[in-house]
Amino acid sequence: MAERRDDETESRRILERVARETAPGGASFIVRTAKDARDRVTAGDTDRTDPIEYWGTRIGRTLGFLIAIGLLAWLVYAATRGG
Question: Residue 35, Cα to own-chain centre: how many angstroms?
């Protein structure tokens, strides 16, 4: 009986945490998304002890981001110019 109660408590705690982390309405969602984007571009998820991997990932992601922005600008330009 006590084991079942512990399982239910743990399940409720996990569900509350998931609901809190995935709620799109709060300011924490915006802050978390901005931090994730910054960490993604600055290679925050790579092994910092390997400088080749770190800088290669950082340069590649930055170039990819800049190319995506350039393509988006070109698309807007082409769409507003009429083809």
Answer: 7
- Number of C-beta neighbours around residue 54 at 10 A: 16
- 41 burial level (CB within 10 Å; 0-12, 13-18, 19+): middle
Contact 66, 60 (CB under 8 A): no
Residues 58-72: pLDDT tens digits?
Answer: 899 889 999 999 999
> Which of 21, 68, 19, 74 lies closest to 40, judged by CA?
68
- Rounded Cα distance, 63 and 83, in Å: 27
pTM over 0.70: no
